Amino acid sequence: MKKILIFSESFEPAYKGGGVPQSLVNLVKSLSNIFRFYVITLNHEYRAPKELLEGIETNQWTDVYNKGKVIYLTRETIGFQKIKNLIHSIQPDIIYLNGFHEFYFVIAPLYLAKQMNINVVMAPRGLLHPGALAIKPFKKKMYLELFKMANMHNKIRWHATDHQEILDVKKTFGQKAEVILANDTPDLTTYPITPIIKKSKSLKLVTISLLAPKKNHLLVLKLLSELNFLIEYDIYGHIYDQDYWLTCQNLIATLPSNIKVNYRGGIKPKEAYSILSRYHFFIMPTFGENFGHVIFESLNAGRPVIISDKTPWRNLENFGSGWDIPLERPDLLKEAIIEAFEMEQKQFDSLAEGAQKMAQRYIKESTFTEDYNTLFISND
């Protein structure tokens, strides 16, 4: 059985790292009958060293889901030599990197893999998307140039989770870059649609995501400030960028009294379904998602979505499951919010059914096992 060594800054029970750790959890659960997975991660919440995880053993390999092994390293323990020793002890067939910038979880293991002649699969996780590169562009451009100058991209097999990411990788590293498409593995549980009353001239919106510029809460808040009818908008998620959240808070403070905005804090992945079911629409005009776990979760929960066209979830209006709107057309996003506000029960119920059907279609048409088998085939 092929041994896959996964590097990720965050892994369950951590829950503040967005969709990536959830993808990895689902991968280990779904495909451990084919691959032997080992996960190297940290013992605290994503980018929060003081928030230590509970119920784990640190600095030693432990079984996870009876299907793999994980080691939660402390900040005091992690280091170049420690990573080298762990790789030597596992002798993996593949090192699977998630992200693009982190030293101990991308640069160091990538360098060591090249030294040890171990095959590398790297999932940039949307970080090469134009929308992501447009945030702090100078710093990212310099990093990319150094990455290329050091020839770090040579002999990497890239994991793209949608067709856009294939284009992003090839645009960044050239048309000869080897890119394999394998969709993210979501939670495949089918949930019943929880009924919710939807009257015309009522609207409950929700966003569940990291509080970061990429998620574009600001655009939602700006559009809501232009409306003169009652809307409830709740925001959930870990605060990733304090300056960005402060900007959001300043705008929230100026909103008219008819717009009710609440920040509800972070949630655990298992809470998403019950929370989404309390609202009419999920909204997130993101600058770019290579999958969008919470978008899938909203659809699967039978909650239509209002999102940008920068995700794999496209043609939503044709499927009767919401709207995917170009970011350069905020007027259309505003119109969608107004239409959602005016919507009555019958039309809403139809959209709710269409949303879940779209999620189920994704599951039915996906070939997870075959795709990941191709991804992790040795590229000697």
From TrEMBL:
**Keyword 4Fe-4S on this protein?**
no
Q: Which Pfam families match?
A: Glycos_transf_1
Domain annotation Glycosyl transferase family: ranges: 198-357
- Identify the SUPFAM superfamilies for this entry: UDP-Glycosyltransferase/glycogen phosphorylase
Output the InterPro entries linked to this UniProt entry.
Glyco_trans_1, Glycosyltransferase_grp1
Which UniProt key words apply to this protein?
Answer: Transferase
Task: Name a GO molecular-function annotation.
Answer: glycosyltransferase activity
Q: Which PANTHER family match?
A: SULFOQUINOVOSYL TRANSFERASE SQD2 (PTHR45947:SF3)
Q: Please identify the protein, giving its name as recorded.
A: Glycosyltransferase
- Organism of origin is Rhodocytophaga rosea
